[in-house]
């Protein structure tokens, strides 16, 4: 039904012009319940991340490498969530969740760009924490604004080039048969199997991105924390050790949530049970983590709380 309606004849063959997203659930009643919940989460994500970016920009005490990285992480989270959430919200109110070929490619390109950039940025933040704890006296000299800017630009460029190569290779494949994506957003592992042409190059590009960017970033983070642990053990006072670890706690929580859910989704068997499980896990890294990140970094952070008090005081008086 949906397959035949979104096909066009091209000589002796028919090609897919649209995909159909299965969404989170087929139950209409559940979709109407989920709509206000996910709308609330998306609005909170926008407000918290924009608020954190503005606070970092407005308070000069927060013009340090750690908060520079944090403001760019918030920007990534806004873009990442916005590439998927609005479409998902509109689909909750539709009977037929159709998405055009171009819109699907655009959604994947932006989501993959931001997701891969976040991997690289979390690795850069781990290096920043290692320098802060391992070489506190040389920290300002090592983590100069120029280097921080290059690290942020590098994260965006790597994410952009990788996402572009994945999107171009996947959406240049020929699609002539089933057009139903078993997900609530356009995701390559669910789209590539629908192709009628040989997907070998697309699969190789996807695998290389996973190895070099995702696992590469994770390796940098693990090595950085290995050196951080060694540096903390050298600190003689218990209070100093606790303070040093406290500066890493938020980043460590963010890394565990992000990489934990991403790896659990993409390293799985393709059974129908695991597909339902993956949809639920995908909600965590697509919808919930962008909302939780600013909260994780702000909740126990005295500098952010003090900066907020200063901004409120200036606004009041």
From TrEMBL:
Its main location: membrane. PROSITE patterns: G_PROTEIN_RECEP_F1_1 (PS00237), G_PROTEIN_RECEP_F1_2 (PS50262). Keywords: Cell membrane, G-protein coupled receptor, Membrane, Olfaction, Receptor, Sensory transduction, Transducer, Transmembrane, Transmembrane helix. The keyword Transmembrane applies. Residues 48-297 form the G-protein coupled receptors family 1 profile domain. The chain crosses the membrane at residues 33-55, 67-86, 98-127, 139-159, 204-233, 245-268, 280-299. GO terms for molecular function: G protein-coupled receptor activity; olfactory receptor activity. InterPro entries: GPCR_Rhodpsn, GPCR_Rhodpsn_7TM, Olfact_rcpt. It is a multi-pass membrane protein. Pfam families: 7tm_4. It is found in: Cell membrane; Membrane. One of its GO terms (cellular component) is plasma membrane. PANTHER family: OLFACTORY RECEPTOR. Belongs to the G-protein coupled receptor 1 family. This is Olfactory receptor. It comes from Trichechus manatus latirostris. The lineage of its organism: Eukaryota, Metazoa, Chordata, Craniata, Vertebrata. The gene is LOC101346359.
């Amino acid at each position: 039904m949906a397959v035949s309606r979104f096909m066009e004849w091209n000589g002796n063959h028919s090609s897919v012009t649209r995909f159909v997203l299965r969404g989170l659930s087929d139950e209409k009643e559940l979709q109407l319940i989920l709509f206000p919940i996910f709308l609330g989460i998306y609005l909170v994500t926008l407000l918290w991340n924009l608020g954190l970016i503005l606070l970092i920009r407005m308070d000069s005490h927060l013009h340090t490498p750690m908060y520079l990285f944090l403001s760019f992480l918030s920007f990534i989270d806004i873009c990442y969530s916005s590439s998927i959430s609005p479409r998902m919200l509109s689909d909750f109110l539709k009977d037929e969740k159709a998405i055009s070929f171009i819109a699907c490619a655009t959604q994947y390109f932006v989501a993959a760009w931001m997701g891969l950039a976040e991997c690289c940025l979390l690795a850069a933040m781990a290096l920043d924490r290692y320098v802060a704890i391992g070489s506190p006296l040389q920290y300002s000299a090592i983590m100069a604004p120029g280097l921080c800017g290059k690290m942020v630009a590098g994260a965006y460029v790597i994410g952009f080039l990788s996402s572009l190569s994945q999107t171009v290779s996947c959406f240049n494949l020929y699609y002539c048969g089933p057009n139903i994506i078993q997900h609530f957003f356009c995701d390559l592992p669910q789209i590539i199997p629908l192709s009628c042409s040989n997907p070998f190059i697309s699969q190789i590009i996807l695998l290389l991105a996973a190895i070099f960017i995702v696992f590469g970033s994770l390796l940098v983070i693990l090595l950085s924390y290995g050196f951080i642990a060694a540096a903390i053990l050298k600190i003689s006072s218990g209070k100093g050790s606790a303070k040093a670890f406290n500066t890493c706690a938020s980043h460590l929580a963010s890394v565990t949530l992000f990489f934990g859910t991403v790896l659990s989704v993409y390293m799985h068997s393709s059974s129908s049970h695991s597909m339902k499980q993956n949809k639920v896990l995908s909600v965590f890294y697509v919808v919930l983590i962008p909302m939780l990140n600013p909260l994780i970094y702000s909740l126990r952070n005295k500098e952010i709380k003090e900066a907020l008090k200063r901004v409120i005081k200036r606004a009041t008086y």
